[in-house]
């Protein structure tokens, strides 16, 4: 069994690692023979923009999945003619466009942020009257890690915001003064659905810095699971689905969804009985799903962004695991992460304080 993965970053890397015990191979596609990829996933040399390459790639694999929603839909549709792709391109079409995504949340009665499509300066001005300040102007497609976004804090910033993003289709969102951010990772095969515990996510400048599993009240977890079920059922979904929410006054407001494994689920590698990566593989192959229970009461994951620390410095801490994505360092690039698992609350809190400082987390956004 060989799974073709569109994309070859850290998510493909971790899918590949999780596939190995099951004796399942993976293959990604890249046009650059020198591509270091992620250090783990084997490469097919070719471009998925080229039909012959794409077909040759598809004949070498049994089915396809993707590690990013930022793949041109035509490519995924074209692959679909050759090979089964999971999750399906129907959900990808929605999840890769912030406007469609928010409209779909509304269709399914999932609360979301106030939003307006923006295609001209006039529309932008009209939308700003409705949202007030601050508001966030975002590209509808191809954004990630806060890229393609501009926070408009006052009227004088409007022209600059529009100028910097005007070459793309846009959406304006009201700014949500949330109490916290959480995400739900759900997984579904053709018949069964399971959910991981909600995780609290701490971002800075639009990039996830760290995540901790929550012991949130059952009502928030149940509410999140109900919302996820609406989507999973509608799309007869197979694979991992992530939904990011803002929490305000104990209510969930959906921010965005990703039809794939997600950074806020990296903790599941060591902190859960079955990782999101293994469960994604099981789900797309329609194998029975594994337990999503956390293996420890306290689990956190810290991202390394821009620079990767000395491994020895952190590995001397008890109960941490280190992932190095084998990437070339670059500002704002995710290069690796560590997971911390603890049974003892005091130990956990002490180490989290140290690790927040260590990753240079600065509480002022
Ligand atoms: N409408 C909003 N109100 C408040 N904060 C927001 C809003 N939209 C985005 N953010 C902040 O920016 C982060 C990144 O934005 P998001 O829409 O999730 O895009 P990305 O695809 O880059 O993850 C969010 O996790 C949140 O911290
Ligand atoms: Mg996000």
- State the secondary-structure class: alpha+beta
SSE pattern, N- to C-terminal:
EHEEHEHHHEHEEHEEEEEHEEHHEHEEH
Alpha-carbon Rg, integer = 20 Å
Share in β-strands: 25-35%
Helix percent band: 25-40%
- Assembly state of the chains shown: single chain
Spans of at least 5 consecutive residues with low confidence: none
Supply the number of helical segments: 12
Q: What does the largest sheet look like?
A: 9 strands, antiparallel
Mean pLDDT: 95
Description:
The chain is an alpha+beta fold. Helix content is 31%, strand content 28%. Strands 9, 10, 11, 12, 13, 14, 15, 16 and 17 form a nine-stranded antiparallel beta sheet that branches. A hairpin with a 4-residue loop joins β9 and β10. The model has no long low-confidence stretch (mean pLDDT 95).
């Amino acid at each position: 069994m060989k799974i073709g993965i569109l994309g070859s970053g850290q998510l493909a890397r971790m899918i590949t690692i999780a596939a190995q015990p099951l004796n399942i191979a993976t293959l990604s596609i890249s046009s650059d023979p020198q591509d270091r990829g992620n250090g783990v996933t084997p490469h097919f040399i070719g471009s998925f923009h080229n039909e012959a390459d794409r077909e040759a790639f598809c004949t070498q694999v049994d089915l396809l999945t993707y590690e990013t929603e930022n793949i041109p839909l035509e490519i995924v549709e074209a692959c679909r003619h050759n090979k089964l792709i999971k999750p399906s391109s129907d959900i990808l079409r929605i999840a890769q466009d912030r406007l469609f995504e928010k409209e779909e949340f509304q269709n399914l009665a999932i609360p979301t942020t106030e939003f307006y499509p923006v295609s001209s300066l006039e529309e932008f001005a009209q939308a700003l009257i409705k949202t007030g300040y601050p508001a966030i102007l975002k590209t509808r497609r191809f954004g990630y890690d806060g890229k393609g976004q501009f926070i408009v804090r006052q009227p004088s910033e409007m022209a600059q915001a529009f100028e910097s993003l005007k070459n793309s289709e846009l959406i304006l969102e009201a700014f949500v003064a949330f109490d916290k951010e959480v995400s739900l990772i759900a997984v579904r095969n053709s018949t069964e659905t399971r959910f991981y515990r909600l995780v609290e996510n701490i971002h800075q400048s639009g990039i996830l810095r760290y995540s901790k599993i929550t012991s949130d009240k059952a009502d928030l977890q149940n509410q999140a699971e109900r919302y996820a079920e609406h989507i999973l059922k509608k799309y007869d979904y197979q694979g991992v689905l992530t939904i990011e929410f803002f929490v305000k006054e104990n209510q969930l407001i959906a921010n965005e969804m990703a039809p794939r494994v997600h950074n806020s689920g990296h903790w599941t590698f060591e902190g859960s009985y079955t990782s999101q990566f293994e469960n994604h593989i099981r789900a797309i192959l329609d194998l029975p799903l594994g337990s999503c229970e956390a293996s420890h009461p306290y689990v956190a994951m810290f991202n390394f962004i821009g620079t990767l620390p000395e491994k020895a410095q952190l590995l001397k801490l008890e109960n941490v695991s280190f992932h190095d994505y084998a990437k070339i360092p670059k500002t704002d690039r995710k290069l690796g992460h560590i997971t911390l698992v603890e049974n003892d609350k005091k130990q956990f809190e002490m180490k989290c304080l140290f690790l927040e400082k260590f990753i240079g987390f600065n509480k002022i956004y």
